[in-house]
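Students often ask why we bother predicting the structure of a whole assembly rather than each chain alone. The short answer is interfaces. A chain on its own may look different once its partners are present, and contacts between molecules only exist in the joint model. In this exercise we take two input lines together and write out one structure for the complete complex. Read the inputs first and try to guess which parts will touch.
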Amino acid sequence: MQPFEYANPTTVKEAVGLLGNKWDEAAVLAGGTDLISLMKDYVYSPKRLVNIKNIKELGGIRADKAGLRIGAAATIDELAESPLVAKNFPSLAQAARGVTSPQIRNMGTVGGDLCQRPRCWYYRDGQGLLASPGGRSLVTNGENKYHAILGNGGPAKFVSASSLGPALIALGATLTLQSSSGSRKVAADKFFVTPSAEGSREIALLPNELLTEILVPMGGTKNATYEVRQKEALDWPLATASVALKMSGSTVSSARVVLGHVAPMPWAATQADQFLAGKSLTEAVAEDAAKAALSNATPLSQNAYKVQLARVAVKRALMAAAGARG
Amino acid sequence: MPEYSWPEQGKRRLMGTRISRLDGGEKASGRAKYTSDLNKPDMLFSAVLTSPHAHAKVVSVDTSAAKAMKGVTGIRVVSGPGTEIQWAGTEIAFVAAASEEIARDAARAIKVQYDPMPHLVKEENLAAAGVRAKAAGEAITGDPDQAFKDADVVSEGSYGIPVLTHCCLEPHGQVSQWAGDKIEMWPSTQNVSGIGGDLSKNLELPATGVHVHMDHVGGGFGSKFNSDRWGIEGTRLSKESGGKPVKVFLDRATELTIAGVRPSAFGRIKVGAKRDGTITAWQSETWASGGFGGGGSPPLPYVFTTIPNQRKNHSAVSLNAGGARAWRAPNHQQACYLTDCAIEDLAAKLRMDPLDVFMKNADVTPRADVYRLQLKQAADLMDWKKKWHARGDSGSGPIKKGLGLAIHTWGGGGHASNAITRISPDGSVEIELGSQDLGTGTRTAIAIVAAETLGLPLNAVKVKIGDNAYPPSGGSGGSTTIGGVSVSTRKATVNALDKLLDAVAPSMGLPKEQLEAVDGKIQQKGNAAKNLTWKAACAKLGAKTISETGVNDPKNPGGLMSAGVGGCQMAEVSVDTETGIVKMVKSVAVQDVGTLVNLKTAESQIFGGCIMGVCGALMEERIMDQQTGRVLNADMEFYKLAGIGDIGEIVVKINTEPQFDKRGVIGLGEPASIGLLAAICNAVANAIGVRVPNAPMTPERVLAALERRNA
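Now the answer. The structure tokens for the assembled complex follow.
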């Protein structure tokens, strides 16, 4: 691990003053469950760490008129255990519980889940985010069973590792990003991006910004998350789906279906949204919606099975939402 | 001379009962110090720089920048210019520094130029291995061609299990200190008495010059017998630093890349049988790799050794990948998988219950009665006859259940072992052996045998192991430890008791032959009223401590230990046919262990063996990248191992019937880890109606098999 400077601010104002204009100048340290291993493996060596765990205003989960406010430094466990979340947003609680390591739930934060780097094994082995040394994609020509089946037409073939992103997008959340020159609000579905160049990131956050809060509007939706994950113990999902349905009686008036772990960013399956609008939800409808969600899939040499898994995730998430409280 | 035997089965107080391990509390609370926990005053840390290339020639090594770094105390280049590297992860240089972080940064600052060469890192496709595959030559028994012509049914299939690593929870390494003409060494080893000799040989020192200490080891599974390059270079770095202790522990990625693998095994197998299930012919074309040296030679057909007509071909494939080390029951898991999956497929083709096919063919195994009994016992515990259905007849709905079974064997005879039992005038008892407790409960087993022999409670006996100043005892490999240490301990303790009886007999006015040690007393046989308490008896020693030796000579077991066991394991799984995810429902393990020393730790060994079977069957595999020649999952997130929720219920039955008990103590660590892998994969085939050829049974493999079935 390269030597680094350690800063321990107690206010957001102080923290954003310590950030840099380039990613290698400073990194935000929250739970550290991802950042520290990146540093130990020399994949990322920032010159300064800005610890945000001592900033009180970044913690906590509370509700007000605008909706549910989740502090970026709230832990994944707080989210999983929150009665407010369980009551209104089962999809978010389910996604949080899908992080199956109690240690990571206890240390990891909501902001950290959204900002963590991909688990692509070529990237983690030091081959770059796009894993294309000399312009040739190691992923396309190599071991890609865990890689992207959607949105993989560009150089990025990894999958977004975020567990909470799909649920937050489906629920229409808004993120607050703060810098020393002010703050801006970004819709969750605009927060994630697919990078096209080595050195860029998978999120819209700039190096000098800090993610401070996530606001989830009280939308009155039926919502659920379903994860296809091989192990009960700590394991990354192979495919997930988060759905949020606005109902009019037994009919879906509008739907948001968002897939996780299948694309370089949480994948908004708008074909499924359109298919579901105006339909009453049966298993056959859910199955057709799942097919629609994956209609544009472009699997790589070893991961066609993930198309099937993602379909199952969509179908089961829809059926779970249909059974859930409205 | 006293005679040696085990107490009669009905008269044992401690042996065979359920006793918690003596160091359980220490381990569960974190007080137990593993070698990787040791930090000596003034200690240096060493890091290793490894080759990123799978096959390359080292052109130059420039250590100047690393040497100039503050805190760096020494650098040793072990693969200098001209060295041909044969696998990624090969050690290039070791750096010693004041902290682990500095050592790692400095290792990265060493500039190495390589001339990369072509590599091969995958062996699943034999044709692609070309000249890297070396055929062992055909072996023929009987007339296989005629037998296959005459067979009523011939079943053919492809099967494979990948390379696994040992993935020891405590990685490989040691602390060592060069102190003048001797070396103090704190290794993480399976071989306390032997590792010093291995190190000294490499350092041109007498074997007696290395003093080895180790209290606990965090797993070895067959990969921790020798001093290794890190042991040798760490010790040399200590010498170069003027004798400071030097700590070298591999990081997880290096551990998984170069610290040993279980060879893979792949094969095309054909089995011929009569309509009643009697197997008449076997044909196998198999290949395997354990790294650059080839390796991996599963004994086929496994257990069903005397199938009358056989044709066998095997090739060893040399890969540019980290080399094999003994992995809990070397070659057996692979052989069991290839054989028992092929026989399950035969049973399915015959539309017979595989339990009946295994029973029917028990006569071509070396222990038909044992396997028939164990198959029946396991079937009862699994409720097999009630639950079993023909392959694929698993009802409607996406979730399918299935059953599978396998049988296995292992040697497990005790290794050479020397023990000293000391009885002091104050009544205290000490046992010393240069052995090690791999987590199997060896410490506790030694205490049980000694306390049983002396008629004392367990806590009256102090066990001292983990130091090569104690009498030499074998390395813990091949499930040989329990046989070795129980016999040497029994003999040493019987000898010591004999000396004690010599001392107390005159004062009790009885010949020593009429005395026995029972319930903390020395008493007259058949007359408990005439006794001396243990303390009073020992006081008769005056100032003299009894110190007696006991030896286990593997060539003369004397009825106290033996070798050669059978076991049967069964699995029940549930498969989600929409996702291909397999969940364990239940496992049953029936195991012969000879004379049982400790029921609780014996069961624990079997639980552990079964859990390794679950990992190998469902999720564990080393994944190599042919482009970079590197291990892609040298970590604990994609090198997948089961957690508590993935294991299911495990039911263990240990055979303690007289015909097993009378054989003496036999090791059980390895047989416990053999059969379940094949049993689980057979259960998956039974559940989904089609064979998934290659383990582990991951979603993509299960879904691909289902797709083939539906096509």
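Check your guess against this: Chain A has 14 helices and twelve strands.
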